[in-house]
Design brief:
Layout (H helix, E strand, L loop, with lengths): L1 H33 L5 E5 L7 E5 L4 E6 L4 E2 L2 E2 L1 E8 L2 E11 L8 E7 L8 E7 L4 E6 L6 E5 L7 E7 L2 E7 L5 E3 L4 E2 L6 E8 L7 E13 L10 E11 L5 E8 L3 E5 L5 E6 L2 E6 L6 E2 L13 E2 L5 E6 L8 E6 L6 E2 L6 E6 L5 E8 L2 E8 L6 E2 L7 E6 L5 E6 L6 E6 L6 E2 L6 E7 L5 E7 L10 E9 L4 H5 L7 H8 L4 E9 L15 E11 L2
Parallel strand pairs: 11-19
Antiparallel strand pairs: 1-6, 2-3, 3-17, 4-5, 6-16, 7-12, 7-17, 8-9, 8-16, 9-10, 10-11, 12-13, 13-14, 13-15, 18-19, 18-40, 20-21, 21-22, 22-23, 24-25, 25-26, 26-27, 28-29, 29-30, 30-31, 32-33, 33-34, 34-35, 36-37, 37-38, 38-39
Length: 533
Amino acid sequence: MVADVLAVAGVLAMAFTVGRVIGAQEAARQAASSAGIFEGHGDIGNVLHAGSVDYDGAKQTYTIAGNGENMWFDKDAFHFAWKKASGDVTLTADVAFLGKGAQQHRKAVLMVRQTLDADSAYADVALHGNGLTSLQYREETGAATHEIQANVSAPTRLRIVKRGTYFSMWLADDRGEFQLASGSMRITLQEPFYVGIGVCSHDGNIVEKAVFSNVEVKSEAPAASSESTATTLYSALEVVTVASTDRRVVYIAPGRFEAPNWMPDGKTLLFNRNGRIEKIPVTGGTPQVLDTGMATRCNNDHLISPDGTQLGVSDNSQQDHQSLVYLVPIGGGTPQRITEKSPSYLHGWSPDGNTLAFVGERNGDFDIYTIPAAGGEETRLTTAKGLDDGPEYTRDGKYIYFNSERTGHMQIWRMRGDGSQQEQLTFGEENDWFPHISPNDEWMVFLTYDKSVSGHPENKDVMLRLMSLKQSPLSQKLPKETTNVNALGASFKDAKITVLAKLFGGQGTINVPSWSPDGSQLAFVSYQLVPKP
């Protein structure tokens, strides 16, 4: 009898064990099926209400319910369906929110993420409840989140593309054709990483839902180099807010355009393309070509007079196609030639409007010169060996900032308006170009290349960096008659330098003054090389 009981118990235990295994397998199968093409899903960060994924195999749609206070700052909270991936990745989906929603900034995202931790590095294309669409990113673990806002609202089909260390946002137009909608932005992720879709309610007390359909994930090995692949160059005119370092796209087009500068009214930007000067509203729109008469080979060295009535251009259409400086009425008209000698490249305009600063090559040397805006004799301000370039006046007219390679590689310098008291401002190993001074004379933005790059070529990894020009207490205590290169240089070695943006650019990115009149924003051009189909 005891033996029979034990036998029955053994059978029941085995059945229970088998049942548990089968149940776990079924649960795993159901969990996998609920995630469709994804390997799993779950809540990221702290949420008050658990999220979910409802996968409809027949329709191949994913309805994601997500909670979470936000996907911003240094931590995220949302629900995420994911799979691991390596190499270059493209993630595409149609996205639609369910219901009216309680928060205009609820987010539905297509994401590439380093880890499933709340503070992970990542990039995503985020569709907000109010239609705002942006490429959001956190460059490294625990860093602040930033974004590049598209100039398109409420798209229905979205795409995020990772090529090497660069991420971009693509949005489908009314015909269903994808258009590039972001500037270039780079983040280094280790392989493997996570690719997926998610929802954040932007309110810890509620749950929001979004439906993702026609979801496609494509992975491929990175191309050996851009030179080995046929590509199309895209240019993106962007504006960055200095306080937040968030970016907004004004205009994107295939081909190359360069060097935006800001009209004094703060409403219009100018840039050069195909030898012509074009203008566009800061809010976006269709560019219009300015009439510059016979000056039809304008390069990226142009600027606007302090009173906003004239446009200065550097044009290669005359005299053996060597650059000369001309002035044109701001509304267009006949160019007035200013420089007699060539090549001459315009960079600065004194705040009183009376003097132009330019770079001229004379007898094989590139130096900085000034000339009356009405025309006349040029005055040489620099004589050091090596290239001097990019002269720009401060708003009070006391200084001219410029870049020089007299120390062996390109660094930022400044001098008095008459060329005296030349002093070095940057001291790093990198190559720094094109200083532009804020309207209050407190900040300088400049373009930085890696130390291995010579000159200022196009299509390179570059940074826009911001430097405080507020001198240290040491320099302020020095008697004016004793200030010299070493004393002032020592003070600037301690100046704070921050990164505004990491991008693909270089020549054409910020060749000319690009601060907004109120000093809160900067305009620049980033570039992308997109492989042809």
